[in-house]
Design goal:
By secondary structure, this protein is mainly β. The protein has a single domain, classed as Metal Binding Protein, Guanine Nucleotide Exchange Factor, Chain A, CATH 2.170.150. It has one helix and eleven strands. The strands form three sheets. The protein has a five-stranded mixed sheet with strand order 9-10-4-3-11. A three-stranded antiparallel sheet has the order 1-2-5, with no helix packed on it. Strands 6-7-8 form a three-stranded antiparallel sheet, with no helix packed on it. The longest helix has 7 residues. The chain is globular, with a radius of gyration of 16 Å. The termini are far apart. InterPro entries: CENP-V/GFA, Mss4-like_sf.
Length: 139
């Protein structure tokens, strides 16, 4: 057994724990995941252990299930952070990787729906990197 890993939302209204033993880490580039994440992709962990336990704030978890597709999402109704949910098939608990407090133990990693990558993600020159905001960024 690998032990438990904790996670939660940005505002602290919710927290959970789950066994730190994930079958997959998928970086999904599909249009649905891009729209939900507001980014180039979603990074989701898939657990078959089904050991998700809400430590705090389960009442703040809102679930969305698309009416026409096998697609679900859960989020904190206070801050909007993505949270774990049971997949439509019932085979997996899907955990947004960014919701975890530590490093997940993952068996397999893959990028999926790469044919749906956003056109602004393709063919870009490497971006500058900074440890914080660049000095030219006026916050």
């Amino acid at each position: 057994m690998t032990g438990m890993i904790e996670g939660g939302c940005l505002c602290g209204a919710t927290s959970f724990e789950i066994e730190n033993d994930f079958a997959f880490l998928l970086f999904c580039h599909c249009e649905q995941c891009r729209k939900l994440s507001g980014s180039a992709m979603a990074a989701n962990l898939f657990s078959t252990t089904r050991t998700l336990r809400w430590v705090r704030g389960e009442a703040h978890v809102t679930k969305f299930r698309h009416p026409d597709r096998q697609f679900s999402r859960a989020f904190c109704n206070q801050c909007g952070s993505a949270l774990p949910f049971e997949g439509a098939s019932g085979r997996f608990v899907i955990v947004p990787a960014g919701a975890l407090e530590g490093a997940p133990q993952v068996t397999k990693r893959a990028e999926v729906f790469t044919c749906e990558r956003a056109n602004w993600e393709l063919g870009q020159a490497p971006a500058e990197t900074f440890e914080g905001f660049p000095t030219y960024f006026d916050t």
